[in-house]
Write a structure and sequence with these properties.
Blueprint: E1 3-21, E2 24-38, E3 43-48, H1 52-55, H2 59-70, H3 81-91, H4 96-113, H5 118-122, E4 129-130, E5 133-135, H6 140-152, E6 157-161, H7 166-179, E7 185-189, H8 196-206, E8 213-215, H9 231-235, E9 237-239, H10 246-252, E10 261-264, H11 266-269, H12 272-284, E11 288-291, H13 298-309, E12 314-317, E13 330-332, E14 335-337, E15 340-342, E16 351-353
Parallel strand pairs: 5-6, 6-7, 7-8, 8-9, 9-10, 10-11, 11-12
Antiparallel strand pairs: 1-2, 2-3, 4-15, 13-16, 14-15
Helix pairs in contact: 3-4, 6-7, 7-8, 10-12
């Protein structure tokens, strides 16, 4: 099964509304798309969402790199997929979003060639899980209004971006628990915005409410400082920016473990193949998995969902990145009803071009 054609393009996708996290506001995102065609006429799709903040990878540098590398894909035989994945690792090591786009297009082709959905190709461990939906950094009133709207739309897991002012964060989270304390789970993402003192204060004032997760509270270079906290705090803390690769995963499972949960994002680690390596490490070490995203096309959201459902260690998904987009190249990929996500059982990634 040889590759005979590669097409690469990018699209600037306006968000439905400006999006804020600690220290940054975003109004649109640019994704890179790749289409691989085999001599049998099969088409594999992939997409990447490069981020300077996440991996030091700009859209322009990623786009130029993937265009240059794509010439080496022509004539490659997918029957030796491991060789191709190694080629990606060696040539696109510092471009994880570009590598991820090609990686998922390959997996799309491999599963289609066997007449299977990707989850059936990988092996299923889960059929459906609730995704959280994220509320960006905003005023107290808007945070509460957005939460009410998401709850009314059927979502049972909310993720709140925090990290700019711990006292305001405590006030917001407490108010959200008052909305529907028994039926809604609350996760927070500090995006490295807290100090040790901030995290301790936030946890002391909110954990009794039933707080589910605290994502990446401290800067990446403060992983060892997480060990100053009790087992209870670390158990619900999630490694996000601290976790990019299988090597990072190995470092983070040394006892005592600084985080109780790993957040895998395909755009950080370079695709499904590397993500599943991290998942295996986590499973072997008793670490729960959360699968996350940025603002991404349904192509890469679907790829992450299939990978997530293949791992027994998966406990949480945060795959809401498509909901922010005003436009996408494709439709399908998954089904989401009342916040519950499942694959759509179509071949490969299950996505189709929009007409």
């Amino acid at each position: 099964m040889k590759l005979i054609k590669v097409e690469i393009y990018k699209h600037d996708m306006q968000l439905k509304a400006p999006w804020a996290i600690a220290g940054r506001v975003t109004e649109s995102v640019e994704n890179i798309f790749i289409e691989l065609t085999t001599e049998e006429g099969l088409i594999g799709l992939g997409s990447g969402a490069p981020s300077i903040d996440v991996a030091g990878e700009s859209v322009e540098s990623s786009y130029e790199k993937i265009k240059h590398f794509s010439k080496d894909l022509i004539g490659v035989n997918l029957d030796d997929a491991n060789h191709l994945f190694d080629l990606l690792e060696n040539n696109l090591k510092h471009f994880p979003a570009a590598r991820s786009a090609i990686d998922m297009a390959i997996y799309d082709l491999l599963s289609k060639s066997e007449g299977k959905s990707l989850i059936d190709f990988l092996g299923r461990s889960h059929r459906t899980l609730p995704t959280s939906i994220t509320i960006g950094v905003s005023s107290f009133e808007k945070t509460v209004d957005d939460a009410k709207a998401h709850i009314d739309n059927g979502f049972s897991h909310l993720k709140i971006k925090i990290g700019e002012n711990v006292d305001e964060d405590i006030e917001k989270v407490s108010a959200l628990f008052d909305l529907s304390p028994e039926s809604v789970a609350i996760r927070v993402d500090a995006n490295r915005g807290y100090s040790l003192k901030d995290l301790e204060k936030f946890y002391d004032r909110t954990h009794h409410l039933g707080l589910e997760l605290i994502e990446q509270p401290l800067e990446v270079d403060k992983n060892t400082e997480m060990l100053n906290f009790s087992d209870d705090i670390r158990a619900i803390c999630v490694a996000d920016e601290s976790l990019h690769s299988p090597d990072d995963a190995v470092a983070l499972v040394s006892n005592p473990k600084p985080f109780g949960v790993f957040n895998i994002k395909l755009m950080k680690c370079g695709g499904i193949r590397e993500a599943l390596k991290i998942a295996t490490i986590a499973e072997n070490e008793g670490i729960a998995l959360m699968w996350g995203c940025m603002d991404e096309s349904k192509i890469s959201i679907a790829a992450a969902l299939h990978a997530a459902f293949s791992s027994p260690a998966t406990k949480y998904i945060d795959l809401d990145g498509f909901f922010d987009l005003g436009w996408d190249l494709v439709s399908g990929g998954y089904i989401c009803n009342n916040g519950m996500m499942e694959t759509n059982e179509k071949l490969g990634l299950g996505v189709d071009y929009n007409e």
